[in-house]
Input
Amino acid sequence: MATSNNSRTSFTIDPQELFAAYRQAEDRQLDVIGIFHSHPAAASPSETDLQFMELNPVVWLIYSTISHECQAFILEDELKGVEVDRP
Ligand SMILES: [Zn+2]
Output
């Protein structure tokens, strides 16, 4: 769903791909509850992520390929951390 661009800390989502994912979920009567992507940096939202988070107010799960940490966030009135249970 997400594709990396040349920057090490930002990424872009193809709007058509995102639309297709939302449509697929709707067809299956599912809700999109989160968006996952990885960073070759810290597991925290980049400036670009924050912009996309405003448009997609669901949980954003970010994996750091450096620290191998996974962190989740949601942008409501402010950026909030979301606790993630590990299996
Ligand atoms: Zn990101």
Observations:
- Residues 2-82 form one domain.
